[in-house]
Amino acid sequence: MAELEAEIEAQLSGARRLVEVCAAVQAGETVVIVSDTNRPESTRQAVARAVLEQGAVPIEMTSPPVPSGAEPPAAVAAAMAAADVILAPTSGAIYHTQSLLRAVQAGARFLAMTAYTPEVLQRGGIFADFPALEPRVHRLTQMLTDASEAYVTSPGGTDLRVRLDGRAAVPITGMAREPGERTGCPDIESFIAPLESSAEGVVVVDASASIAGVLTEPIRITVRAGRAVAIEGGEPAARIRAALDSTGHTDAYSLAELAIGLNPEAIIRGVIVEDEGVAGTGHVALGSNVFFGGTSAAPIHLDFVYHKPTLHLDGQAVIIDGEPQAPWFDIS
Predict the structure, then answer these.
(1) pLDDT for 152-187, tens place per residue?
(2) Where exactly are the structural domains of the chain?
(3) Any idea which architecture 2-121 has in CATH?
(4) The whole model's pTM is what?
(5) Gap between the Cα atoms of 65 and 218, Å rounded
């Protein structure tokens, strides 16, 4: 018991930032904490304690783990639908689910805390200046939305071209402070669903990946006509292929997302909701994108993070080696 209490105390500072700054929890609100048996008890309790300190009511829902992109159990979905705020330290992401979409449409605000370890609430991205970084997120979001074509390369070997015509990018500010908002935290990024069948090239994933965690050898994803036709890279790649194959869905291998991370405090540590937001990284996803403008309804969504992207939008280099460029960004 003393050890658990020490673990809770160590995470309280980060949990308070999550609850107060990122979710803006108010006295009297109902906060559903969605978790599973593979996540640390100390993290659930630290978050619940921070909620109580705000005068709100924490309701903890703990179920068996659910894969990223799959629907949570019915009882969890019902609790989410009645919540003011949903905080989700889950093993698999529920951001890309119908249950979460219904909850936010009903007015809930949502923070994904996918695969959180205790360290996430002790140092790193959770201590970023989220309000100060918000304008940069919205700037990149507008640029992606306005662009017709994106071309991204990296020193590791990424060389990918996609069409974006008519697609709207999504800002992830790490904050969900208004009804109906949903975000990852401490993720700060902008992402977009490329046009189906448009993606061509290679993504060399040299930072981290869903399921695989921090990588010791790169994963090479070859994309043709919008689909991953090869995923190579030893045992981690084999695990990813197995997860995609297990869905039995034709869209599981679809190139679903193109994104750039913007959180300068975030750390690559194998927690995808932080890894994908690290400033100076880019990522793609395979699987579902039907909830952010695409047509892939696969019951899985896996992210793949690589270092130092150079991003061209309609021929203009707006990010070079992970660094946003003037005059397209205010980088003062």
Answers:
(1) 999 999 999 999 999 999 999 999 999 999 999 999
(2) 2-121, 132-171+188-324
(3) 3-Layer(aba) Sandwich (3.40)
(4) 0.91
(5) 27
